[in-house]
Amino acid sequence: MILAAGAALMALSAAPAFAQDEPAAQDESASAPEEGGEIVVTARRRAERLQDVPIAVTAFSGELLEKQGAIDVTDISAVTPNVTFENSRGTNSTLTAFIRGVGQQDPVPGFEAGVGIYLDDVYLNRPQAAVLDIYDVERVEVLRGPQGTLYGRNTIGGALKYVTKRLSDKPSISLRGTYGSYNQADAVLTASTPITDNLRIGGSVARLTRDGFGENIITGADNYNKNIWATRGSVEFESPDQRMLIRISGDYTWDKSNPRNGHRLFTSMLTHTPVLSDVYDTQAGLNNPKQDVRGGGLSMSVSAEVTDHVTLRSISAWRKDRSFSPIDFDSLPSVDVDVPAVYRNEQVSQEFQLLYKSSNVNGILGFYYLDAQASTSFDVLLSTTGALLSLPGLNAYTAGDVRTHTPSVYGDFTWDITPQLSVSVGGRYTWDKRRSHVIKQTKIGGTSPQFGGSAVVISTATDFRGEASFEKFTPRASVSFKVTPDQMVYASYSKGFKGGGFDPRGGGTSAPDTNHNGVRDYQEIYDFISFEPESVDSYEVGWKGSLFGNDLTYAIDGFYAKYNNVQIPGSVGVDANGDGIFESFVGVTTNAARATFKGIEAELNGRVARDYAGPGSAVTLNGTLGWIDGKYNEFFVNGVNVASQRGIQNTPEWTLSGTLGTYLEVSGGTLNFSTTVSYRSKTQQFETPIPWLDQPGYALWDANLTYDFPGDHYSIGLHAKNITNERYITSGYNYLTYNPATKVYTSTLGLEGVATAFYGNPRQLFVTGTIKF
User: Whole-prediction pTM value?
Assistant: First the structure.
């Protein structure tokens, strides 16, 4: 409690609301703080005060995100406890998400995400095109811990929910523009109008651009630039009695940004190319295929109150995306582990919900179905140096296709036994079926035809087809008690489940010959490429309340989780031609580990001054604290338990933030200022410590100043991000080992040696302006 209070002493102007899900209708959302600081939410299908919601969730309103100058959903990571959201290595639009130590770093198909990503209640099966830009947003919610008894797909670590705005019942139009450092120039046009008393139509178009933070000195192209077109549109019909709502919506994003290439951390081993001085510069030579990411979808949500107690809801959706990407592992002009790649994803989902409410019982019954196809194919272009000269243009090609069919049923009910005591019980039953096809071939003649080349297959090492099915029941239960009308304590248990599958990068020739007959039979290859489900048992206790007439509100929780049969994605080098050098790689995913997590989270919102500079003025102090102790109890490599030598990736022990803010009336308008300091302790990029890639603890400092003119038609803002220009690693590639006895580095993939890093954004200053009518 002392630590949590200390973290709060640096806090935020318009504080994030703590809210849960909005499953019943799109317009259910966390309200703005009322006079006195109380926040009202509809977390459990009825309007409740924040203090009554027994779960750890943080919600950010669209208005708050706009005032903070948030660019995309990764920006909320700094002010949310025990959460990591970041761009995946080498990409602008693929999301890496971890909550409470659970997540997925590798975006290839075959792996379910540990954190569920939702766009207007539609689950996104793949992380490609999931770095959602902040525009036309009602709110963004982060739910920590296993989810699945209330909506959508079962997720083992938590959920990120992006909820767009409902259409206005009056004609409206707004234009938001941004200009800043690195020639950042954004424009978002939003308009809507009623067609009849019950029918509305509207949408947004966004153009988001920025020059690079650095340069590719080989090609002359910007590195870390941004070049995006995006649009959303919707049609809404509401019955005259307001008991039925139909919403049809669509979205499309086209990301034409340049490849995001890494910064080498060591002088190259073959050509002895030195390290560049600017961490945002690169010397990557691969520029094929042209970076191109396109994704979008359609959805229809229908909600009907059939009686005063029963509401029926349907959510139907289709989504598709395609990403071409040139991945230059060594970040050099050398053709040494250059990987032209493409990802393709398509999904259809259907969800039905029956919601029940009465004076003391509220609940939901649901059915969810997902049919998804995810595929990847990539070349691995190998060095033409040394022994490989005899095979110019050698190409180790991989293609993996994974089909997922998964129905599930779920339910969750809350019984208010007394006005003080409530009990919730829920459960989900999931059936997962996977079908996979994996091909690994050796080609000559450069790139494959799908990347514009004419490579010819000279051998097929793997042509694997496999199927697997998994079933699991995952229960949830909680009890909450109101000690006073303003103080609530709760305890909960939930079980999370993530299905197994097949590694689409696996290679049959690398499978162990377990029966020692000199032949790798189908079962041995199946066992090598496949992996089993993982599960987590999560326990949580929490305390929510308010003091001093709601001038101070807080949410504090502690959790303990047992993580079993953990899926560990990895890869091993492959000697493609027997010369003793590992030029290519195959995926190896094992259920090698068992881990435990325990931690504390605290979020506090305080108003320390009222009317200090006129009516309505206030000073606010807000803070967040996350502490997590995660460790592997077992981690087997070749039958040896190396748990003491492994750590939890993308999970700093400490995440802290504090914001000092003020708002007051100036010349009839509202001036809002906030400044935020956030801190993340040392972050390990992979399970194995890598001193040159792991990021030591660091702090970021942001500040925002906005002014809303009288009449609420115009606003301007000045925003500063990473004011101290901190350099920090967010991800990277590593295929180097170090022998401390000989002090020698050895490459485990390629001839140049691969150790490249990707960095968070440098200092950025930008201004925003909004016109709306």
Answer: 0.90
